[in-house]
Design goal:
eight-stranded parallel beta barrel, TIM Barrel, 26% helix, alpha/beta, Rossmann fold
Length: 634
């Protein structure tokens, strides 16, 4: 699962390389005093096989763990008691608990409820009495020894044995499995654990494939209310794999779970050892303002750093710089653990100054399916997204995708929202999914079912034609009544003109239909000027916006702080528009940037069409490759 080019992602704030280190003697970086960090917690997950084997070599492990603690401050460990049907012995569990408690580290438990992960993550059969009894017994064993338990992301069912087929009856697999796992949550996990230990907190950790949860029994509509807390799988490794997990998802899914269980999303969970995405997963998880991150797993964080041999830039050199220890000695980083420690020290300097995450309210009801992961792609083109499980009546602008149709009252809610003055942006995927049950009462905009080949956008004449290569991008064809609805984001095929977006007035508000490419990655091929128009269409009501290429993301907060992150390998020079601001302050360097350029109301300088937002000042911001910068508007 690891990416090539390890540690390319560690080009952290190249222009701020010297600023990220606290003042120490030349050639050293400090180990800050005390355990833990002010604004975040770090936990390490030990699998059952490590919990069982380490006590036999405890002296050797103690040496390795001492090296870990020189490079990152660990607040908590999760000791897994079971995986692949195996159960750790009581003696091993007690030895591991004692080891960490003697070092002042909180100890919690993990449950890896899988029969055989190497066999397609084979699950327990929760229709079989023997499997149910085994799970219950393992939960009871764990609850006797721990006051907090987290479920690793095997708490699903993929069993289709004869018992399950018979038990399903005429229900869909989704209905059968969600109902079954809701019952398992209550009767085999929470009930037995609390009966054995009334103090126990049980956390359900959800994996990164959130579009498929319900098909295997993860029930976001029910389970978050049952469990004491939830955790978010923020592993986003290879964006080009079959899972299509875009880098922005490490933030977006965390924020979605914040909205599903407000105050109850305990943190994120990253995996991947030394791959190129490790540091970025770490940052993006904490950009969503959760308190904790779990590093999976103990063996991965002890792997060696590859260091400057792959990325000899100044920031990576700073990562490898000897760390001053409390006794005055220094230690040269040599483990992946230092990636987490270095990132934690950097983030700890500003996380407490960020407000609540905000973005374009994008409605995805719990257990919905449709236009899978589209919001992640939008985040990668610089649109801050706030993925929400309930219809966002308090928002000014809402984005509705094919997943939104899972709300049976969606059309009525949207009609009321727009008529009262809201802006609703609806994807062509949703229009097609609703068919005749759609928004015809608001605007008779039809998605014909045909695709057209977009070659160029904007119709800007021969000079643009010569400079801009043919895109050859398939887009849904839309039809509307002239002078009742209005086209925008125009493009041309070989000989015809079409619209990528159409707007129509309704009551005091505006209704938009936006043609989304069938392959969402085609958004990355759009010219920057078109990306600016999409940002204006969706993010008009936000205080900040980007003029930047794709793979540059924007994170916004309700106290007018924001982050610009560059997922590209090369530096990018961006323009940031901020309303009601004369300067922005870099929260890492305390330097200020003035905004000499400004616009009046009605849109960005780079934008065209009728989707422009309020005016603001423009600030030139350069962000190194695989880096971020964080600002406060003043």
């Amino acid at each position: 699962m690891e990416c090539a080019n390890k540690y390319a992602a560690l080009s952290v704030l190249l222009t701020l390389a010297t600023a990220t280190a606290l003042p120490v003697s030349a050639g050293e970086t400090p180990a800050p005093r005390g355990r833990g960090y002010a604004n975040l917690r770090i936990a390490v997950y030990f699998r059952c096989q490590e919990v069982q084997s380490i006590p036999d070599n405890l002296a050797q492990f103690a040496t390795s763990w001492a090296k870990v603690e020189k490079q990152v401050r660990v607040d908590k460990v999760y000791l897994e008691t079971t995986r692949n049907r195996q159960l750790a012995t009581e003696a091993a569990v007690m030895a591991m608990k004692r080891f960490f408690r003697e070092r002042g580290i909180k100890v919690s438990a993990g449950l890896g409820l899988t029969v055989q992960e190497s066999a397609g993550y084979q699950s327990f059969c929760y229709s079989t009495p023997a499997d149910r009894d085994q799970v219950k017994a393992m939960v009871e064993f764990t609850a006797r020894h721990f006051d907090e338990i987290i479920l690793d992301d095997f708490f699903f069912t993929n069993c289709k044995c004869e018992r399950c087929i018979a038990a399903r009856g005429d229900k869909s697999w989704t209905q059968f499995r969600t109902e079954q796992m809701d019952e398992v949550s209550r009767d085999l996990i929470l009930g037995p654990a609390r009966a054995v230990n009334p103090r126990v907190r049980v956390i359900i950790k959800y994996p990164n494939w959130y579009e498929s949860f319900q098909g295997l029994g993860y029930d976001l509509a029910v389970q978050p209310r049952l469990f004491d807390a939830i955790h978010t799988g923020t592993e986003t490794r290879n964006a080009e794999s079959g899972q299509r997990l875009q880098s922005y998802q490490s933030y977006l899914q965390t924020q979605y779970f914040n909205n599903i269980k407000p105050g109850g999303n305990q943190g994120g969970w990253i995996d991947g050892g030394g791959d190129a995405r490790y540091a970025e997963q770490f940052w993006d998880t904490f950009f969503a303002k959760v308190p904790e991150i779990v590093l999976f797993n103990s063996m991965q964080i002890m792997r060696g750093l590859r260091g400057g041999e792959l990325d000899p830039n100044a920031t990576l050199a700073n990562l490898m710089t000897p760390i001053r220890q409390p006794d005055g000695s220094t230690y040269t980083p040599d483990m992946v653990a230092r990636t987490a420690g270095y990132s934690a020290e950097l983030l700890d300097r500003f996380l407490g100054r960020l407000g609540r995450p905000i973005g374009v309210a994008t409605y995805k009801p719990c257990n919905s399916v449709g236009e899978a992961y589209l919001p992640d792609y939008l985040g990668m083109i610089g649109v801050p997204i706030d993925l929400v499980p309930d219809f966002p009546t308090d928002a000014s602008t809402i984005l509705l995708t094919a997943a939104s149709r899972y709300d049976k009252d969606l059309v009525a809610k949207t009609r009321k929202f727009v008529q009262a003055g809201g802006r609703a942006v609806v994807t062509t995927g949703l229009i097609e999914a609703l068919g005749d049950r759609g928004f015809q009462d608001i605007a008779e905009i039809e998605v014909t079912g045909h695709r057209v080949m977009a070659k160029r956008f904007g119709g800007r004449g021969p000079a643009a034609d010569a400079a801009e290569p043919n895109l050859n991008m398939l887009l849904p064809q839309m039809r509307h009544f002239e002078n009742d609805a209005w086209p925008g984001l125009s493009f041309t095929t070989a000989a015809s003109g079409y619209a990528m977006a159409i707007s129509a007035a309704y009551g005091r508000g505006t209704f938009y239909v936006w043609a989304v490419p069938d392959d969402f990655a085609d958004l990355y091929r759009l010219p920057q000027s078109v990306l600016n128009q999409i940002r204006a269409l969706l993010g008009r009501d936000l205080f900040v916006s980007l003029d930047a290429p794709d793979h540059v993301s924007l994170f916004a907060y309700d106290n007018r702080t924001f982050i610009v992150q560059n997922f590209r390998s090369e530096p990018v020079r961006t323009r940031v528009r901020v309303t009601d601001a004369t300067r922005i302050r870099d929260l890492l360097t305390d330097q200020t940037l003035a905004g000499p350029q400004s616009t009046g109301g009605g849109g960005r300088r780079a934008g065209r069409g009728n989707f422009g937002g309020p005016g603001g000042a423009f600030f030139e911001v350069t962000v190194p490759g695989h880096s971020f910068r964080v600002f406060a508007a003043e």
